[in-house]
Design brief:
elongated, transmembrane helix, transmembrane, membrane
């Protein structure tokens, strides 16, 4: 068993990796939807179907950004407490990044569903 500092450092590294993954996934989702909408526009299909999925992916990016800002805020509070020789501050549930990371992941799944629903609503004329 390691000491708590080792586990805390590992936890922060993993949280940073999760945030990078979420940003990449949402950004990739936006790029994929835009590329698909662009290719369908060449076939005279209006890209309005892409608005909802892009909007939902953008919300996921916002949630990942909030998670990053909260992580920075917590670290600054911990730094200030260490400078002053005080105990680490306690943070409420909404200040923890993992809750925002989970929300971002759930929104990602919703954005993928919105994109698939949007594509499924398109009828392509063959021939």
């Amino acid at each position: 068993m390691g000491d708590w500092q080792t586990h805390e450092a590992r936890s922060q590294q993993l949280a940073d990796s999760v945030r990078r993954y979420l940003v990449a996934a949402h950004t990739g989702g936006i790029a994929t939807v835009l590329a698909t909408a662009s290719s369908l526009a060449a076939q005279q299909i209006h890209p309005r179907w892409a608005l909802w999925p892009i909007g939902v992916f953008a919300i996921g990016l916002l949630l990942a950004g909030i998670s990053m800002l909260l992580a920075q805020h917590r670290e600054m509070k911990r730094r200030d407490a260490a400078k002053a020789g005080k105990e680490d501050p306690e943070f409420s549930f909404l200040w923890w990044s993992w809750s925002w990371n989970w929300l971002s992941l759930i929104v990602f799944v919703g954005a993928v569903a919105a994109a698939l629903w949007g594509l499924g609503s398109i009828s392509l004329a063959v021939g």
